[in-house]
Request: fold
Amino acid sequence: MTLTESTAPAAPDCHVVELRQYTLHPGRRDTLIELFDREFVDGQEAVGIRVLGQFRDLGNADRFVWLRGFADMAARRDALPAFYGGPAWAEHRNAANLTMIDSDDVLLLRPAWEGAALTAPAEPRAERGATALPPGVLAATVFHLNEPAGAELLALCQGAMTEVLAAAGARVLGWYVTEATPNNFARLPVREGEHVLLSLAMFGEAAAGDAWLQGMAPQLQAWLAKPTQALRLAPTARSALHA
Reply:
């Protein structure tokens, strides 16, 4: 099997997802993105990790955000050592790590309900070496909750929140909640002891913002433990998630 061949699950079959936010040294984001798109996408997918999308944070020039998925926690336990003990990471990890201040801001998630996972992208990922940037802005909204998301909140997501996003011009892609299973790859920390809800929606224009949240704020307030994080993310050249 070559590194361009994938053994990774399709996006809808990823029952465990990581949302990873990296804080980088000033001016180093493009260096990491070029390295990541060239060396770390195919290598991860060859060992069973689905690289769902990678992005520039439009609100923070020194933040790189990406999503990856696994069939389940057992698959995560097996795939991560295979990649981080493999040739691509061994060759390029020093260059990657030199761009980073912090890579520990990681949420471990699962689909919020049956059918809430990301659907497969309509277009294949760009080939290795591609530089043209695909269209769209991903609105990744992290709601910090007082307790695990329950039926009433999830019904609000499926109903009013999806309708508000659609009215704002977004295509709702997926909903995720905290995966409570303990981290089974201690080498890479995740944020534990938190309850979150993640909304993923794609806007077609860079002007897309978080104004849609304002109308929902009164209905959401009772569930929130602290302010919501609203990320506006521009896909990299090889991101599978784009408009």
About this structure: Residues 11-235 form a domain with the Alpha-Beta Plaits fold (CATH 3.30.70.100). The chain has one domain: 11-235. The longest strand covers residues 100-111.
